Amino acid sequence: ETGVTQSPTHLIKTRGQQVTLRCSSQSGHNTVSWYQQALGQGPQFIFQYYREEENGRGNFPPRFSGLQFPNYSSELNVNALELDDSALYLCASSLGGTVYNSPLHFGNGTRLTVT
Amino acid sequence: RKEVEQDPGPFNVPEGATVAFNCTYSNSASQSFFWYRQDCRKEPKLLMSVYSSGNEDGRFTAQLNRASQYISLLIRDSKLSDSATYLCVVNWGDYKLSFGAGTTVTVRA
C-alpha cells in the first residue's frame, strides 16, 4: 500500500510569487483534502476534492485554488503569496467523498516559507 | 469563539505518570470526535476515535461529554515516546475536520 506523498518537502518563495504544491493520494483513495498549519496552530481546512471536483472549501481566499486529476492526485496553487502564507501545507487522502466517513491519511507536508 | 479549543500545555510529566487533558467544542451538532497525535515537524496521525460511551486503546482512554461539549484524553503509565502534541478533532457531519491547536505533552525520564 502506497501512502500519501507530497512534493516538494520544503520551498522558499518571495511575496507576490505563485506556488504549486503536489500530492499523490494513497492507493484506492478517491478524496483529497488540503490543510494549512501555521506554527503553533492546528491544521485549518482549505478545500477538498472528490472525483476531480471541489466539493468543500474552508475560509480561504480565491487565490488558493486546486485541481484533482483522474488518478486522484492533486495540486494546490497559491497566487500572490503573502508573508502569512508561510506554513506547513498538508495533504490528506481518504475514501470520504462528500461526507467524512473514514480516517484521513496525511502526507509529510510541504513547508512553505514566504520572504 | 474558536470551534475547537484546547489547553496548549505543555504538560511535563515523569515517566509512569498519568496525564489528562480536555478539549471543548462549540457546535452542539458535532457528530464525530477524534484524537490525532503530531510529533515535532511531522504530519498528524490518528490516535483514536472517541465514542459516546468512552473507549480505551491500551494506555489511552478517551471520553465524550456531549452535555458539556468536551472530550478528554487520559494517558496512563506515560512513556518517553508519548511526548507529542495531541490534536483534538471534530467533524460536524460534513466533509471536513476541525482541529484544535493541540496540547503538548512532554514525558521526562
Structure overview:
The complex is a heterodimer of chains A (115) and B (109). Chain A is mainly beta and 115 residues long. Helix content of chain A is 0%, strand content 50%. Chain A has no helices and 11 strands. Chain A has strands at 5-7, 10-13, 19-24, 31-37, 44-50, 53-57, 64-68, 74-78, 87-94, 105-106, 110-114. In chain A, the strands form 2 sheets. In chain A, strands 2, 4, 5, 6, 9, 10 and 11 form a 7-stranded mixed β-sheet that branches. In chain A, strands 1-3-8-7 form a 4-stranded antiparallel β-sheet, with no helix packed on it. Chain A is globular and about 35 Å long. The termini of chain A are far apart. The model of chain A has no long low-confidence stretch (mean pLDDT 92). Chain B has 109 residues and is mainly beta. Chain B has strands at residues 4-6, 11-14, 19-25, 32-38, 45-50, 55-57, 60-65, 70-75, 84-91, 97-99, 103-108. In chain B, strands 2, 4, 5, 9, 10 and 11 form a 6-stranded mixed β-sheet that branches. In chain B, strands 1-3-8-7-6 form a 5-stranded antiparallel β-sheet, with no helix packed on it. Chain B is globular, with a radius of gyration of 13 Å. The interface between A and B is medium-sized, with 25 and 20 residues.
